[in-house]
Amino acid sequence: MTDVAKLAGVSHQTVSRVLNGSSKVRAETRERVLRAVDALDYRPNAMARGLASRRSKILGVIGFDTILHGPASTLLGIERAARTAGYGVSIVTVEQVDRISVANAAETLSRQGVDGVIVIAPQLAAASALRHFPAGMVAVAVEAGQDSGLPSASVDQIAGARLAVEHLLGLGHRTVWHIAGPGNWLEARDRIEGWRRTLNAAGIAAPEPVDGDWSARSGYRAGLELAGRPGVTAVFAANDHMALGLLRALHERGIRVPADISVVGFDDIPEAAYLFPPLTTVRQDFDEVGRRSMAALLSLLDEREEECEAAAEPIQPTLVVRDSTAAPPASTK
Questions:
Q1: Does residue 171 carry a pLDDT above 80?
Q2: How far apart are CA 99 and CA 104, in angstroms?
Q3: What is the DSSP string of 89-153?
Q4: pLDDT in tens, 270-321
Q5: At what angle do helices 216-227 and 240-252 cross, to 10 degrees?
Q6: CA dist list (Å): 87 to 43, 50, 84, 91, 207
Q7: Is the pLDDT of residue 324 over 60?
Q8: For residue 17, is it within any domain?
Q9: What is the average pLDDT value for the chain, to the nearest integer?
C-alpha cells in the first residue's frame, strides 16, 4: 500500500479510503490511485485488513445438504454478495435441520472465527431451531419466517402465488388447482396460503390441493391424478420441477398445454424457457436475497439496526409469462 501511495503521489490513508470505497476522495485522485494499483498489480492482504479492522472478513453459512434449486441458488446468491463485500465464505451443511445440528454447525463456524452467520432455513424445524441459536453470534436467517427470532431475508411467497393465480383467473379460468410442496416447508405453506387467499378473494372455493415433494416425479404423479378429473383447466405447481412432471403426465394423457390445461410453475429454473411448451412461472431473485441477507448482517455488525430492518423487507417476485398459459377451452368458459 505504501508503494501504491508513493506512485500515486498521495497519502497511505488516501489509498486506504479508495480501496474501501469511501466517497470522500475526489474522482481524479481515485483514478490516480487505481492506476497505481493496476500498475503495481497490488492485491490487498485480507488477513492484514482483518487484523486492522478486528474482523476476520469470513462469513459463515449454514445450509442443509440438498440439490434443490431454491436453496442452492440462495447459497450462490449469498456467496456472490459476500464476495462483493470483500468477504470469504465458510459453508457448513447439515443433513437434519434441527436444534442440535444447527448448534453444532454454529460451533464449527465459531471456532473458525467468522464475523457472522447466515442460516438458510426454509423448513419448519429449522425456523424452530433458530430460536435457540447460540448467544453472542451475529446471525441472519433466510426464508425462516417471522418466528425464528433472527432478522430474516425472504421472498414474499404469498405474493408470488397471488401473481400466478391472478394471471390464470385473468385469462378466464373458473378456478385454479394446486400441486403443493411438502408441508414441512415454510415456502410451500405460504404458496398454498397465497393460492387459497387469491381464490377466496375472487369468490371461488379452493379445491383440495394435490400433495407433492418438490420433485418432477411427484409432479408427474399429481398430473396423472389431475388428468382424470373433469373440469381441470388451470394448474399452479409450487415449483418448476413439479410443473415439469405435470407437463409430462398431461402429454401422455393426450391433454394439450395450454389449449386444454394451462400450467404455471414457481422459481424460473434455467430450463423453464426451454420446456415444451415454455413454462409460465414466478421468478425469485436469489441474488437479491443474497444482497439483502449480507446487508442485514453487515448492519448488525456495525450496529445499524434501522438499516437491518430495511434489508429485511420482503423481496417481491415477478411473473414470467411464456407459452404454457392461455384462455380456457370455449366449452368450459
A1: yes
A2: 9
A3: EEEEEESS-SHHHHHHHHHHHHHTT-SEEEEE--BHHHHHHHTTPPTT--EEEES--SSSSS-EE
A4: 999 999 999 999 999 998 998 889 888 888 887 766 666 666 688 999 999 9
A5: 40
A6: 14, 10, 7, 13, 48
A7: yes
A8: yes
A9: 88
Residue 282's SS3 state is strand
pLDDT of 216 strictly over 90: yes
Cell readout for 150 is: 433472527
State residue 201's pLDDT score. Answer: 98
When divided into structural domains, the chain yields a total of 3
Q: Which domain CATH number covers 7?
A: 1.10.260.40
Same domain, 231 and 327: yes
**In sequence order, what E strands does the chain have?**
58-64, 88-94, 116-120, 139-142, 152-153, 177-180, 210-211, 234-237, 262-267, 280-283, 318-320
Do 321 and 280 contact (CB within 8 A), yes or no?
yes
The boundaries of the domain holding residue 328 are: 157-284+319-332
User: Does one domain contain both 93 and 37?
Assistant: no
Residue 50: predicted pLDDT: 47
Do 279 and 166 fall within a single domain? yes
The reply to whether 72 and 188 lie within a common domain is no
Q: Is 265 in a helix, a strand, or coil? A: strand
CATH for 60: 3.40.50.2300
